[in-house]
Amino acid sequence: MTLPAQSRLPLPLALALLALLAACAPEPPAEAPPTPVEAPPPPERPDPPVDQAALRRERAESARAATARAEAAAASPASRNMRDYLAGVEQALIARGRLRIDSGDEIALTPEKLTDTFIEVALYDEYVREGGKLVSRPTPAPLRRWQQPVLLRLEFGDSVAPDQRARDRAEIAGFAARLAGISGHPVAVTGGAGNVAVLILNEDERRAVGPRLAALVPGIPPGDIAALRDLAPQNYCTVFAYSNGNSPVYAQAVALIRAELPPRLRRSCIHEELAQGMGLANDSPRARPSIFNDNEEFAYLTRHDELLLQILYDARLRPGMTEAEARPIVLQIARELLETEA
Questions:
Q1: Is a pLDDT exceeding 60 seen at residue 62?
Q2: Cβ distance 9 to 17 under 8 Å?
Q3: Bias category Pro residues: which stretches (predicted)?
């Protein structure tokens, strides 16, 4: 609806005109006060009853439709092949004594060993950029971590069925709370905008993820999009963390987890990528007992890894520190942590 235009006067002038009009108007005759109207209040009308049975039917139908979409999306040849491949990988690793789910307490830790592992895992990058591509080569890097709260936004491909989404969400929320308790830094799953996108996608969905990545991380290097889109089969999951400019403080991250993963590898990926996204960016063959080791000996975050996270977020360290600056402080923290456990 369009309203007719009204002239507008500067406020002081408008007030002056109103005063002038009031002074010129004849005084109106006194009127008798109006007779009060007495009427009963309108009757209360209860809200219409909620048909709980209809709501349950609607939810069940919605769940069935989502499950049907997931089954159709997961039935592609590429996704079926990847699911079979990963199931075989998990079985083979477990048969060889890998993907251990114990804490590895029989492996002795010393302050010096813990310090060396921290330096290798937190102060080296696993990959280096060369010609717009990512090349696997450990490279010295400054200490990096988050300063703002870490808010995890979960995004599932259509191939992930509702019941699996619920399990993944519960697993990630529980692990986020564990990371927060270990590090003392806020970490949580959010239903709104987050700074860490956790994408759980199957083969076909991952290959089409380029536009979504560009929207999630404006300015993301094309090489990173290619690395996530063309993830090699032996890479079950990955995480990319980003800073603004040359800052050593993380601002955004993207974690990608294959939707076809079987249970133990799936949970292992959640542990490793979310922990690495906190600032433990590298893997080391000397890290033991640890998930930050490519030999897949341990499936889940160990007490050793918890110590690494505690060191990383200790207030005596600061983002941007080099190995020379950080090492003596890390050694002191490691001595304190292990003495407390003794």
A1: yes
A2: yes
A3: 26-43
Strand-pair partners of 135: 128
Between β-strands 249-258 and 237-243, what pairing exists: parallel, antiparallel or unpaired?
antiparallel
In this structure, the strands spanning 133-140 and 187-189 are unpaired
Residues 301 and 131 sit within 8 Å (Cβ to Cβ): no
Q: What is the amino acid identity at position 170?
A: A
* Residue found by looking up tokens 């033991």 in the block: 288
Can you list the domains of the chain with their CATH numbers?
94-341 (3.40.390.10)
Q: What pTM was estimated for this model as a whole?
A: 0.81
pLDDT tens by residue, 320-335 = 999 999 999 999 999 9
- Residue 33 carries which DSSP code? P
Q: Which 3 state secondary structure label does DSSP give 261?
A: coil
Give the 3-state secondary structure of residue 258.
strand
Q: How many helices (H) and strands (E) does the chain have?
A: 11, 8
Q: Token pair of 170, please?
A: 């519960």
Three-state secondary structure of 133-152: EEEEEEEECCCCEECCCEEE
